[in-house]
TrEMBL record:
Record protein name field: Uncharacterized protein
Subcellular location field: Membrane
Chief place of localization: membrane
Lineage of source species: Bacteria, Bacillati, Bacillota, Bacilli, Bacillales
Membrane protein topology class: Multi-pass membrane protein
Superkingdom classification of source: Bacteria
A Pfam family this chain is assigned to: SLAC1
Keyword Transmembrane annotated: yes
Bilayer-spanning residue ranges: 68-90
Keyword annotations from UniProtKB, A to Z: Membrane, Transmembrane, Transmembrane helix
InterPro entries reported for this sequence: SLAC1/Mae1/Ssu1/TehA (IPR004695), Voltage-dep_anion_channel_sf (IPR038665)
């Protein structure tokens, strides 16, 4: 039997039961992009894919259900994704022009 373990996004209470924090995916990825303690590299672009998939799914579901609340939530997720993409693009260009991007 597993003891109670806690991760950033989920906690395992039992081998058959995993409790997932619903706000974890977008907010944790959003704040990890702005964390200065983790060195920036090309792999950081991998952060944008799950956020883009979540944004796309949220927008499609909001249009399907036709709910103003879900449309607002989808718009906020899209705004967070846009900010993350802009930050990733600027940091990538900065590393490219300073010569640190292709350094091994």
């Amino acid at each position: 039997m597993l003891s109670h373990r806690r991760n950033d996004c989920f906690s395992i209470l039992h081998p058959d039961r995993i409790q997932i924090d619903p706000s974890c995916s977008t907010t944790s990825l959003f704040f990890k992009v702005f964390n200065k303690s983790v060195p920036f590299g090309a792999t950081w672009w991998g952060v944008s894919f799950p956020m883009a998939a979540l944004s796309n799914a949220a927008l499609k579901y909001a249009m399907f259900v036709d709910s103003w609340l879900l449309s607002t939530i989808a718009a906020v997720i899209l705004a967070l994704l846009s900010i993350v993409l802009i930050v990733l693009f600027i940091r990538t260009l900065n590393m490219l022009f300073t010569g640190k991007w292709l350094r091994g």
